[in-house]
Design goal:
The chain is about 25% helix and about 25% strand. It contains 2 helices and 4 strands. A 4-stranded antiparallel beta sheet has the order 1-2-3-4.
Length: about 100
């Protein structure tokens, strides 16, 4: 299978104003797949709160192409037990239209 030119991607730290776009990407996984353990897609406001809480301790990155966010990744607590303080879980979500692009 021949592929076209690869798009240029930029990875950067998340910003509060990214919340609406990230909520849009995530909503597909909540509503259309079994990947998420949530039943209701969070609002942009709820997503902004999640970003604030996560970035207080862990990295949170977005991936852009041509200025449009096409995916994001973040780390979070694996467990609240003290023995797991240095262990993190990683979540990655890609816009449904950008999956399988290499």
């Amino acid at each position: 299978m021949k592929r076209g030119k690869m798009e240029s991607l930029t990875i950067r730290n998340v910003r509060p104003e990214d919340a609406a776009r990230l909520a849009e990407i995530y909503s597909y996984y909540v509503l259309e797949t079994a990947v998420s353990f949530e039943y209701d897609a969070p609002t942009a406001e709820e997503f902004a709160n999640r970003i604030k809480n996560i970035t207080a301790k862990y990295p949170y990155l977005v991936c852009e192409t041509d200025g449009r966010i096409v995916g994001y990744a973040y780390a979070g607590a694996y467990s609240t037990r003290k023995a797991y303080d240095w262990t993190a879980a990683v979540s990655i979500y890609v816009d449904k239209d950008y999956r399988r692009k290499g």
